[in-house]
Write a structure and sequence with these properties.
Elements lengths: L2 E13 L2 E9 L10 E2 L2 E3 L12 E2 L2 H7 L3 H19 L4 E2 L7 H6 L4 H7 L3 E3 L4 E7 L7 E10 L12 E7 L16 H10 L5 H9 L10 E5 L2 E5 L17 E5 L2 E4 L5
Parallel strand pairs: 1-9, 5-7
Antiparallel strand pairs: 1-2, 1-4, 2-3, 2-10, 6-7, 8-9, 11-12, 12-13, 13-14
Helix pairs in contact: 1-2
């Protein structure tokens, strides 16, 4: 089964009570994670392979962190910027892209590079850092190799697109990680990322932590179902072949309608 490349972006801002991250809720008819709350993002398209394009600037830090061929790394980063604009309206770059471009971009009616040229806009990859790397478990029908990136949100409004995503909100991570799935449905990687973000008081702290994340390893859970619910075994778990990743939990369980986890690996 093929694994699709994807990027998701943690758009963060400093709220009144600390760090907040922008989240969107997927349509209930979505083919992947219907109804779930996620971070803006999506698949890497062929048109995102824009390494060397004059409208793509910067990115030395994030491209080095991804530690893959630079052309592929650029595609992951560009996809994150494009999908973030399509799903949230937030533009991570110079110039301004009007919101009425979001549907035509999503439908392929206008090329991303044409939109950049027409509005004298550039993608600024220096706005991005790498946060984590998740791969969908082998037993899933749809599988994704997803790079989680993080960026400070510009002081501009954010709003879901009313198509792929039907709701949106700024979230204080600690306020939702203990909620039941029927109140705030999330996939395990999203939930664990919120657990990680909840450790940071502000955006500067989270970005500093991202700067230290070099030589990232993929987190590919092994999924098991039992009478208790669902168990996802991560690197470092006795039944997982990969060694533990410092700072990352070794298992995430779904019990009584909530995600819970073991303490992170040292």
């Amino acid at each position: 089964m093929s694994i699709r490349s994807a990027t998701t972006v943690l758009l963060c801002r400093d709220g009144q009570d600390g760090l907040e991250v922008f989240m969107v809720q997927r349509h209930r008819r979505s083919g992947f994670l219907p109804n779930a709350w996620v971070f803006p993002g999506g698949r890497v398209d062929k048109t995102d392979h824009l390494h060397g394009h004059p409208r793509i600037r910067g990115g030395r830090r994030v491209l080095d962190q991804l530690a893959i061929p630079e052309a592929d790394a650029t595609a992951y980063a560009v996809a994150g910027v494009r999908e973030t604009f399509e799903e949230s309206g937030v533009w991570l770059g110079t110039g301004t892209l009007p919101w009425d471009l979001r549907d035509p971009l999503n439908d392929g009616e206008i090329a991303f590079t044409d939109a950049l040229e027409q509005h004298d806009a550039t993608v600024e990859l220096d706005d991005l850092r790498v946060w984590s790397w998740w791969v969908t478990p082998e037993m899933e029908r749809r599988r994704y190799d997803t790079r989680f990136l993080i960026a400070r949100a510009p002081s501009a409004p954010a709003q879901h697109d009313h198509r792929e995503v039907v709701n949106s909100r700024w979230v204080a991570p600690a306020s939702v990680i203990d909620l039941a799935q029927d109140a705030f449905p999330m996939a395990p990687p999203t939930w664990w990322t919120l657990v990680e973000l909840a450790q940071h008081a502000d955006v500067a702290s989270a970005l500093h932590a991202a700067d230290q994340r070099n030589a990232l390893r993929p987190i590919q859970p092994i999924m098991r179902f039992d009478e208790q619910g669902v168990l996802l075994m991560l690197p470092g778990h006795p039944e997982h072949a990969e060694p533990a990743i410092p700072g990352v939990t070794t298992e995430i369980a779904f019990e009584a309608g909530r995600w819970i986890c073991e303490p992170p690996a040292a």
